[in-house]
Please model this.
Amino acid sequence: MSDDILIARPGGRLQGSLTVPGDKSISHRSVMLGALAEGVTEVRDCLMGEDVRATMGAFRAMGVRIEELEDGRLLRVHGVGLKGLRAPAEVLDCGNSGTSMRLLCGIVAGAGLPAVLSGDDSLRRRPMRRVTEPLALMGARIDTAEQGTPPLRIHGARALHGVDYVLPVASAQVKSALLLAGLFAEGETCVTEPAVTRDHSERMLRGFGVEVRQSGAKVCIKGGQTLHANRIVVPADISSAAFFLVGAALHGRERLTVRAVGVNPTRTGVLDILRLMGAQLTLDNPREIGGEPVADITVHPAELHGAEIPPELVPLAIDEFPALFVAAACARGRTVVTGAEELRHKESDRIKTMARGLRTLGVTVETLPDGMVIDGRPGLGGGAIEAHGDHRIAMAFAMASLRAEADITLRGASAIATSFPDFVTLARTAGLRI
Ligand code: S3P
Model:
């Protein structure tokens, strides 16, 4: 069978305990900051998915040596400092990865290097003006395609200056791109966000010895600061754990533990939302790994019910909605999600692709411009689902098989490798019938 098609059969059950791979956001940033630091940074448990490999490839193309040791469990990034990157000879291929493209855009523009950034069909449809426009205010010159989409052509030899910018949309990628550009800029760069988004860049910059000033929703960085090489351990990705947490919660009769998961409060919206829907979750063994809080998360038997999701939780769970929509489809009663327009700009339009898939399984769904209304039902049907090159759509519908009455065929499942290369093996071990 082709790697691109998976069949998830009914009758699976999730139980036991498992560990999911390293956090994608933190892994990207480890490579990036390691490359910009003075000295050799060691990164343990970095996610070796296609997205992070795209980031690694881009830095290698700009002259950074990255060693992969212990079967990839340890990376050694030979930092070149803020002035050491070379202009790449080829197009920087970001693959499917919005984080690679947006953060790299800030770094490459900041370094004043001429470069072209492109990616796959999905990435070439995603909005990039949200990062090129504020970078232009800082003095960069970046061309996009007509719709404000990739490829991005960055003109070199431009010195940037700091700005005080208010983000029109809550986006950690844009915030991070501007802070990273700000490292190279003259003066201070400040970014104010309309809602709290993940703060991994701020935490990790501090870990590399950079002073980052935070006051309320505003975060500022002064240009010209040296990054000092660091040792990083990447916690397990709560966004990957979410599929298993939801799978166990919607099955409702088993206990499942996901170990050593990053529980940074800017990422735990999925836990709050599952609790609002009646899930019983406990966090044990809380500890800190590399400046990030970590805990073992256990799902206990409980039945899910629908809920109105408070919009302020949306940015804190933005990547978990594909899984949460499946939970809602199996919950008693109605779930309403609003304030989630950003879902339309992810690896696919996640409101559209999830609604289509859920309808295929017999669920009654109403789409809204910024969300979805889902009427849960006791059992799901089967059918063929198109993932549209979106890893999280494929993994969410794999979990739907736990409540399905017939096979679910997932087309476009190879996208799973962007964030979770061992998903199928782990899911089988935990009890899914894929
Ligand atoms: C990410 C930020 C979020 C998230 C993405 C990773 C990051 O995107 O959806 O998967 O690592 O900064 P936005 O900044 O577009 O919300």
Remarks:
- The pocket of shikimate-3-phosphate is lined by residues 25, 99, 171-173, 176, 198, 318-319, 342 (CB under 6 Å).
- The chain has a mean pLDDT of 97.
- The radius of gyration is 21 Å.
